[in-house]
Amino acid sequence: MIAVELQGHGHTADIDRPFSYEQFADDVAAAMGHLDITQADIAGYSLGGNTGLQLAIRHPGQVRKLVAISANYRTDGYYPEVLALIQIITPDMFAGSPIEEAYLRHAPDPNAWSQLIEKEKQFEANAFAWQAEDLQSIAAPALLIIGDADGIRPEHAVEMLRLLGGGVAGDFAGLPPSQLAVLPGTTHLGVIFRTDWLVSMLTEFLNAPSPEERACATGPTARGRRRERRPAPCQYLMRRIGDGPSDPPR
Asked: Checking DSSP bridges between strand 40-45 and strand 63-69, what pairing results, if any?
């Protein structure tokens, strides 16, 4: 597991560049390339969740599965009061909080705390609306997670689910590749404390075969006939699922 700390967050210093989800996604893609990681399961929360969506849109080949927690693809996915509150936030409102303490303990420049708050406010003040087609283009199976009292409207999360291929009668159409979990009694900040729920959900979702892997595992069969030979990519996937690591076909 690799934890990526985005520009200006955690141990990563800020630079003279505006925040943007697109740039954050490109940074993650570049980090994966630097670490020689061709493809990975991506999980992100809030700002990280939106970054994960953009990574799957802009660099689809690098995302095997996507977990987007408390994420949105348009500004109107937030409750209006959330946007209003963000604009009146001051550094003093975080005084003594775990968020401030973590920043002061880990940031390369602890004195940049106030500048980070102002930069975040400017970032959130810039309305964004990604195209529905952008989400529909995401090929990776996705797990969306929000709290039932999140800053993200549940209607928006359902809309995202449908754009990602979910929201169907699974008993008749089969289970779709994308899923939605709504955590009861959970706020936006409260999501990060639901570790038992999150670990169980993420483990099951990430360990389940993808549709491509499931198709390869099943393979074309017919009664009374020999199973057809799987193509090389399927053979590689089967080895990866059942027999440990293997080099991909050339």
From this structure: parallel
